[in-house]
Amino acid sequence: MKFFIDTANLQEIQEAHDLGVLDGVTTNPSLMAKEGIFGHDNVMAHYKQICEIVDGDISAEVIATDFDGIVREGELLAELHPNIVVKVPMIRDGVKAIRYFSEKGIKTNCTLVFSAGQALLAAKAGATYVSPFIGRLDDVSTDGLQLIEQIVHIYGNYGYQTQVLAASVRHVMHLVQCAELGADVVTCPLKVITGLLKHPLTDSGLEQFLADHAKGNK
Ligand code: E4P
Q1: Active site: which residues (predicted)?
Q2: Helix axes 10-19, 40-53, angle to 10 degrees
Q3: Residue identifier of the C-alpha nearest atom 12 of ligand 1
Q4: What is the pLDDT of residues 182-202, one digit of tens each?
Q5: Which domains does the chain have, with CATH numbers?
């Protein structure tokens, strides 16, 4: 399973990278705005900086919602660095653009996916990744993990190459359950990745080991 970090914060990206388990990064317009990154040149420079930290797929989202605009923006993003993945929303022109990018050999991440039907469409269009938003489904009393299970099952039925990228991951158990269900990738905040480290028995066990070692070395 690949671990992506879901942030545009360079410090957090660096910290996850330094842990040695990071495979890529996902961003979105809200995450870029949170870091105060606005304007074409600043946005492009920021993506470049992310690419310099992480040698893995970096999702950069288009703002346009019409086919020509998505293609124009996506091609500019893809030219930035070979690791850029063009993130395209699950809308009619988005699906057409994903097909276009797929034929040009440009990697895509189909975002804002909330149903198995949408995921099927993304795979048919040739998306590299599909991003079902599990936390946002949970927020509206719908089982996000059930959607991951459905998509993994459907893609398995037909051997689709599109990778299931579980997004809107809110806590450690989301991540662990996505792994159980066979999601190819999970993207999450830094605290979810570092949350995997934690177990009280690890802490108390280590404390005991160190105390016992200290006794013998007095
Ligand atoms: C996915 O790529 C999105 O950027 C992200 O996971 C959305 O998460 P949120 O629902 O916590 O905003």
Answers
A1: 87
A2: 10
A3: 168
A4: 999 999 999 999 999 999 999
A5: 2-216 (3.20.20.70)
